[in-house]
């Protein structure tokens, strides 16, 4: 689960992180009021969307002006003008894709006098099963570019969960950033604060880009991007309330109601599979034969008929889908349950595109019989390779 920058900063502030003063607003009038309360002489007007690259992004609409999604204002009037241009318009960044995201809220923040910019993030290192710090002097840049061009400028280290953050971790961060004296002490404190926030809140990622040094020698978290482990949100009702569903795909929201693992993709073949590994293999083989998957959808090992029906409805609701592949290997999951769910869904929503079904495993013969006797135009497949070739051929034939 992702949250907005202003929400991330409010959370980090609770743990003692140094952040600039700012106010979240939803209208030009609120922006004007916030700017007046913050005082001047500089304000930063920031689009709040769940995507990076906002400053370099561009709005689709001409009335939004030529500037990006993060703008420096030199008067209260200019803050209001920028807010009017940005709110309700679509911002396209390197992370949103060409469709972009509509800006529904802004963060009005006091301006900062920047002396240096750094990069600092925390994430879960799956190789070590520990929380890792990623530190670089190249703040304000895409960390992927830094990793490609100058990897020596990135320091990565993990923290033993038994001991937690120790003094030497803070000194590592300070040394990597070239900080000494009081700034080194601030870096050490910030290291402890961020680790505490990360672990206590069940974060999956915390990225600060940039972390700045002001001209009066203060470390300040100038931007913050936070995502949480969705599986842990039952422990954090207060954090779950921060979810902004307008930033998410409607199909993914619907899938979450049925505990379906669904991720929307940009292809043409809808997939319903049980098991993450089999789902990944299904996506790969579709690509191998020249088409692209429209989604990743894992119904899980113990799905009910209702769950399968919901999954099928979500797939068919995607206008990009030109064909559907159901690929089930029945272990815990029973093939007859899948068959009944598919039949129920098709009878409810109709079937406008080719459907290939491959069933194998528990109750497979019963499942195949249910589909065979349903009277539906379903294409049976013997194995995964056969299924992939048939659905790709059907989609290409109909194109």
From TrEMBL:
<feature type="binding site">
    <location>
        <position position="109"/>
    </location>
    <ligand>
        <name>ATP</name>
    </ligand>
</feature>
<comment type="subunit">
    <text>Heterotetramer of two alpha and two beta subunits.</text>
</comment>
<comment type="pathway">
    <text>One-carbon metabolism; formaldehyde assimilation via serine pathway.</text>
</comment>
<keyword id="KW-0547">Nucleotide-binding</keyword>
<feature type="binding site">
    <location>
        <begin position="331"/>
        <end position="333"/>
    </location>
    <ligand>
        <name>substrate</name>
    </ligand>
</feature>
<dbReference type="GO" id="GO:0000287">
    <property type="term" value="F:magnesium ion binding"/>
</dbReference>
<feature type="binding site">
    <location>
        <position position="112"/>
    </location>
    <ligand>
        <name>ATP</name>
    </ligand>
</feature>
<dbReference type="Pfam" id="PF08442">
    <property type="entry name" value="ATP-grasp_2"/>
</dbReference>
<protein>
    <recommendedName>
        <fullName>Succinate--CoA ligase [ADP-forming] subunit beta</fullName>
        <ecNumber>6.2.1.5</ecNumber>
    </recommendedName>
</protein>
<keyword id="KW-0479">Metal-binding</keyword>
<dbReference type="Pfam" id="PF00549">
    <property type="entry name" value="Ligase_CoA"/>
</dbReference>
<feature type="binding site">
    <location>
        <position position="274"/>
    </location>
    <ligand>
        <name>substrate</name>
    </ligand>
</feature>
<feature type="binding site">
    <location>
        <position position="46"/>
    </location>
    <ligand>
        <name>ATP</name>
    </ligand>
</feature>
<dbReference type="InterPro" id="IPR013815">
    <property type="entry name" value="ATP_grasp_subdomain_1"/>
</dbReference>
<keyword id="KW-0816">Tricarboxylic acid cycle</keyword>
<feature type="binding site">
    <location>
        <position position="209"/>
    </location>
    <ligand>
        <name>Mg(2+)</name>
    </ligand>
</feature>
<dbReference type="InterPro" id="IPR005811">
    <property type="entry name" value="SUCC_ACL_C"/>
</dbReference>
<dbReference type="InterPro" id="IPR011761">
    <property type="entry name" value="ATP-grasp"/>
</dbReference>
<keyword id="KW-0460">Magnesium</keyword>
<dbReference type="GO" id="GO:0006104">
    <property type="term" value="P:succinyl-CoA metabolic process"/>
</dbReference>
<dbReference type="GO" id="GO:0006099">
    <property type="term" value="P:tricarboxylic acid cycle"/>
</dbReference>
<feature type="binding site">
    <location>
        <position position="223"/>
    </location>
    <ligand>
        <name>Mg(2+)</name>
    </ligand>
</feature>
<keyword id="KW-0436">Ligase</keyword>
<dbReference type="GO" id="GO:0050074">
    <property type="term" value="F:malate-CoA ligase activity"/>
</dbReference>
<comment type="similarity">
    <text>Belongs to the succinate/malate CoA ligase beta subunit family.</text>
</comment>
<comment type="pathway">
    <text>Carbohydrate metabolism; tricarboxylic acid cycle; succinate from succinyl-CoA (ligase route): step 1/1.</text>
</comment>
<dbReference type="GO" id="GO:0042709">
    <property type="term" value="C:succinate-CoA ligase complex"/>
</dbReference>
<dbReference type="InterPro" id="IPR017866">
    <property type="entry name" value="Succ-CoA_synthase_bsu_CS"/>
</dbReference>
<dbReference type="InterPro" id="IPR005809">
    <property type="entry name" value="Succ_CoA_ligase-like_bsu"/>
</dbReference>
<dbReference type="GO" id="GO:0005524">
    <property type="term" value="F:ATP binding"/>
</dbReference>
<feature type="domain" description="ATP-grasp">
    <location>
        <begin position="9"/>
        <end position="241"/>
    </location>
</feature>
<dbReference type="GO" id="GO:0004775">
    <property type="term" value="F:succinate-CoA ligase (ADP-forming) activity"/>
</dbReference>
<comment type="function">
    <text>Succinyl-CoA synthetase functions in the citric acid cycle (TCA), coupling the hydrolysis of succinyl-CoA to the synthesis of either ATP or GTP and thus represents the only step of substrate-level phosphorylation in the TCA. The beta subunit provides nucleotide specificity of the enzyme and binds the substrate succinate, while the binding sites for coenzyme A and phosphate are found in the alpha subunit.</text>
</comment>
<dbReference type="GO" id="GO:0005829">
    <property type="term" value="C:cytosol"/>
</dbReference>
<dbReference type="InterPro" id="IPR016102">
    <property type="entry name" value="Succinyl-CoA_synth-like"/>
</dbReference>
<feature type="binding site">
    <location>
        <begin position="53"/>
        <end position="55"/>
    </location>
    <ligand>
        <name>ATP</name>
    </ligand>
</feature>
<keyword id="KW-0067">ATP-binding</keyword>
<feature type="binding site">
    <location>
        <position position="117"/>
    </location>
    <ligand>
        <name>ATP</name>
    </ligand>
</feature>
<dbReference type="GO" id="GO:0004776">
    <property type="term" value="F:succinate-CoA ligase (GDP-forming) activity"/>
</dbReference>
<dbReference type="InterPro" id="IPR013650">
    <property type="entry name" value="ATP-grasp_succ-CoA_synth-type"/>
</dbReference>
